Amino acid sequence: MESKALLVLTLAVWLQSLTASRGGVAAADHVDQLVKCSHERSIHLFIDSLLNEENPSKAYRCSSKEAFEKGLCLSCRKNRCNNLGYEINKVRAKRSSKMYLKTRSQMPYKVFHYQVKIHFSGTESETHTNQAFEISLYGTVAESENIPFTLPEVSTNKTYSFLIYTEVDIGELLMLKLKWKSDSYFSWSDWWSSPGFAIQKIRVKAGETQKKVIFCSREKVSHLQKGKAPAVFVKCHDKSLNKKSG
User: Fold this and answer.
1) What are the backbone dihedrals phi and psi of residue 163, each rounded to the nearest 5 degrees, phi first?
2) Do strands 173-180 and 127-139 pair parallel, antiparallel, or not at all (unpaired)?
3) Domain total for the chain?
4) What is the spatial distance between Cα 103 and Cα 101, in angstroms, rounded to a whole number?
5) Which region holds residue 146: left if phi is over 0, alpha if psi is between -120 and 50, else beta?
6) CA–CA–CA angle 49, 205, 86 (5° rounding)
7) N or C, which end of the chain is more exposed by having fewer CB within 10 Å?
8) Cβ of 93: how many Cβ atoms within 10 Å?
């Protein structure tokens, strides 16, 4: 315990001296300062892992940032995830790998990652680009409402996967709400007839617990319309991913 406290104090003093040394930085040194800021952030994350070792942040191995943002890399099979900082699990690897995670803006930095998969159904072919949505998660411990996300494209009879995260531990997921937001500008086509899709189920995978949960519409099929009331889905099935992970 004393060694950890000493390490935290040493790092804090180092950060303070680094910040003080920035005074009067010339514009030509901005690139160097960006590198220093990146390194400084890693020190903050390490200090956080010492102060909050009972709740370490988790990072996930992924081939690219794009794949991570789609929520495709939240598997912990074969050492694909690891704790960040002091409580890291030592793993032998033949080659280095990239690890990704989201963080809060301030300490404690830990967040909770979720992959969401939605299949948009419909009888008429529709395609919309850069659509804004909000999703709300409700659990046994807390809730996180109106989490914004944007899908680059939404088309009829296609499945989309994306990553969201919460700053609080929701606990076991019980219910979610999905809202399709109106455009910030006025649209005559949306005024005459609001576009919509049919959704039966929404699949959610929690990175930190490695559980998959399936949420079903209360009405067997929910009709999600742009700018209208959110669709409500309740948990209808879940399973542990200890044996099988996707």
Assistant:
1) -105, 135
2) antiparallel
3) 3
4) 7
5) left
6) 10
7) N
8) 8
Q: Are residues 127 and 187 in the same domain?
A: yes
In three-state secondary structure terms, 138 is strand
What's the pTM? Answer: 0.80
Distances (CA, A) of 148 to 181, 185, 200: 10, 18, 21
Q: Please check whether residue 227 is in contact with residue 58, taking contact to mean a CB–CB distance below 8 angstroms.
A: no
Helix axes 30-51, 2-20, angle to 10 degrees: 160
Same domain, 62 and 129: no
Scan for tokens 């019980």, then name that residue: 174
Round to whole Å and give the CA distance between 14 and 69: 33
Alpha helices in the chain (DSSP H): 2-20, 30-51, 65-69, 188-192
Quote the domain boundaries for residue 94: 58-100
CATH of the domain at 224: 2.60.60.20
pLDDT truncated to tens, each residue of the chain (246 aa)? 545 544 444 444 444 444 444 454 444 444 344 334 455 677 788 888 888 888 889 999 999 999 999 999 999 999 899 998 776 777 766 677 899 999 998 889 999 999 999 999 999 899 999 999 999 999 999 999 999 999 999 999 999 999 999 999 999 999 999 999 998 665 555 555 678 999 999 999 999 999 999 999 988 899 999 999 999 999 997 554 444 444
